[in-house]
Every structure is written in structure tokens, then in C-alpha cells.
Amino acid sequence: MKTRNTTTKLIAFAIALSISAICTFPTASRAGVVRDTNSSVGRHSRDVRALTPQKANPCAPRGFQPFTNPNLLQNFSFNTVGPLGTSTTFSGPLPNVPPSSAAKFWTVHNSNGGAVITNQMIPSTGPMGPRMLRIRTGGNEGGLVQFFAPPNGGPLKIIACAWVYVIKGQVQLVTGGTTATRAARSIRRQTRATPKVLILKSRGVSRAPQDAGPPPPKELSAASKKEMLKDLHLAQEPGSIYFKVTLRNSFVAGKGYINFGNPYSVESYHDHVQWQPPNNEKQKFVEIFLNSEAAGRHYLIDCTVNQVYMSNYPYKIWRGSTDLLQTIEAQNNAIYGQHLVFVIEATDDGWHSFRISGGGNWYFYSCEVTHL
After folding, report:
1. Is there a domain that residue 23 lies in?
2. Domain span at 141
3. N or C: fewer beta carbons within 10 Å in the chain?
4. Residue that finishes a domain, picked among 171, 187, 203
């Protein structure tokens, strides 16, 4: 796995990742732009070479903190599925409005000859999982593009980074507008088909627990779930657990997964996600995706949360960002936490999603989905 970094003083408004054979992109973690490469499918270009070592001067300005500066990209970790599903294939000349890739907010481009390009969302082996994109292109170029600002309306300087695992061929990353994109051909940075193995020296550090936060609530018993269903006047008995997702285990293939909108802290050590003021329920949320097995299925949803420092702000359940479905009063008990329990009736099969927002200082721990 390698990181690719570029900087530009041009007015940047897009990022693209171009390849000439097969590779996987676990994440594109900062803003940038990309174009053509020079190898053909089934063979390696003669001018493929190792990455030029970094110069002494750093890529980023002194004091730059990549995880505290705003990320200009949407869906930078490729965790949200695009409108065309988890796999797309295109060939021939593409329309003026490029089609979506398997990842939302990312479009694809192929060679001038209209070569086949396929991208597929698969489990990630990179540092920012749980998913990454596997890209196959049948020509001398093709890849991903994202426009994050109007043409010539972006910032004057950005830093772009991407984690790339090359299976075959070569990859390049370019930042900037249209001019910078064309200039990429003359400043191409390429990789070997087999990634170079590096040996890094590291000093041991103590991992003292940080931001442990309040504890999650205890699990609900089957009897408690049954009693709750009676309160809802439902005759169904709780069945088997369909899936359960947490920060550490956020993706269950074919069943469900979770995404987080603008969290303050993501603590895998303690397995929780935290949001802090100011309140912005349209942008600060956890989004749960559920794949209904058939039309008319009912699922019992149990999400564990906690709210501290007397914020006393209700939890809200949304369909999308505008359709408010339910408001649940916060118990505001940092010692015991809280269960947000409700039933989803899937009117059709396939994927369904809903969002949960809180207020003040709140934590999310898990979401368990049970058959009814």
C-alpha cells in the first residue's frame, strides 16, 4: 500500500484517479485531480518506474494537520454506495455528464477510444475501511473523478492524498482545474506492478485510554424486546438477530452497514463515535443501511446511544436529511445510556436507510437489527 501526495497552487476544483490496468483504491483522503497513464492491458509500459523519493522539503506546510482541516471531498473513504449499485461497467464514448461509479459522488472516465472500465466496491484492506474500490480498465487510461467546487472556484492551494494498492499497471494523481489535468501527462508519477516493500523504524508508545466517554447501556433481553413489542401492539415475537453493526464492525456483507456524518471523534479503541456542539442534525448523524430480504418484512431496530453534560436534546430519526419520522426524548443518564428502539416495516425488498441525530454531546455505540 502506498500513499500518493500532490500539491498545487492552481485553482483546484476536481480530483481524479487514473489507472491503466488493475488496482484498488482504499481511500482518497484529500482533495485533488488526475488523468492519463501509458500502459496497455496485459503488459507493462516500458517507462514504468518506481516513485521518485520525496525531496527534503515536506509536501504539506509546517503545522498542517490533515485530520483537523476540512476534507473537500464527499464520500472520501468510498463507504457510501452510488446510485447504480456496488458494481458498474461502461464502454464506448461516455456521455457529457459522466456516469456514477460504485461510490457515491465519484464519476468514472475511460480512454478516448471508449475502452471498458469496471469498478466494484469490495471489503477494504486499507487503513480507512470498511470498503474500497477495485478498478479495471481496458485501455491506456481510465479512473475516478470528483468535482468539489465550481470550475475555477476552488481554493488556491490544496493537499491531495490517496491510498492505492496496485495489482497491475500504473496510477497517477493530479490536483487542479482543467489546465492542471492536461499538464499531468508531462509530470506523470508511476508505480511498479509489484509495490515496493518499505521498512520503517518505530518507537513504542503507551496507549493510555483517551476520551473513554460514558459506557454503553446493557443489552436488551429477549423478554424486554417482547414487552416493547406489546407496547406497540404488535403480535410478532422477536426472532433471530439479522445483523449488528458497531464502529469496529461497521459492514455486514449483504445485510447492513453504517456511515457517520461529521463526527467529532471516532474512537475505535473504545468502539464509539462522538458528536459535540453546535447542534446540526442535518449534517451530524449516524446513517444505518438495511437490506430487506423481502417486501413486507418487519425488523426491530435497537440503537445504543448516550448523551452527557445535561444537553437534554431529543434524538430524531430521519428518512434522508429532510423527512423526520420520529422524535425520542433523551433520558440524559450518562451512567446507564439509552436504547432507541423502533420497528421498520420494509414495503419492498432491497436497501433501506435511515438517519439518527442527537444533540449537544452524544455518543453512538451500536445498532442491532432483529427479525420479527
Report:
1. yes
2. 2-187
3. N
4. 187
> Is 313 a domain residue?
yes
Q: What is the pLDDT of residues 8-33, one digit of tens each?
A: 333 445 555 555 555 565 555 434 33
Domain count for the chain, please give it: 2
CA distances 345 to 233, 294, 349, Å, are 14, 11, 11
The backbone region for 198, taken as left when phi is positive above 0, alpha when psi lies in -120 to 50, beta otherwise, is: beta
Query: Which of 187, 212, 244 finishes a domain?
Result: 187
Cβ burial, residue 134 (10 Å; 0-12/13-18/19+): middle
Residue pLDDT, tens place only, 301-312 = 999 998 876 667
Q: Is 196 within the bounds of a domain? A: no
Cβ within 8 Å of residue 273, ≥6 positions away: 247, 260, 263, 265, 266, 267, 286, 363, 364
- CA pseudo-torsion sign 332, 337, 342, 346: positive
Decide if 201 is inside a domain: no
- Report the candidate in 316, 308, 321 with the shortest Cα–Cα distance to residue 360: 308
**180/313 same-domain check:** no
Q: Residue 21: left if φ>0, alpha if ψ -120 to 50, beta else—which one? A: alpha
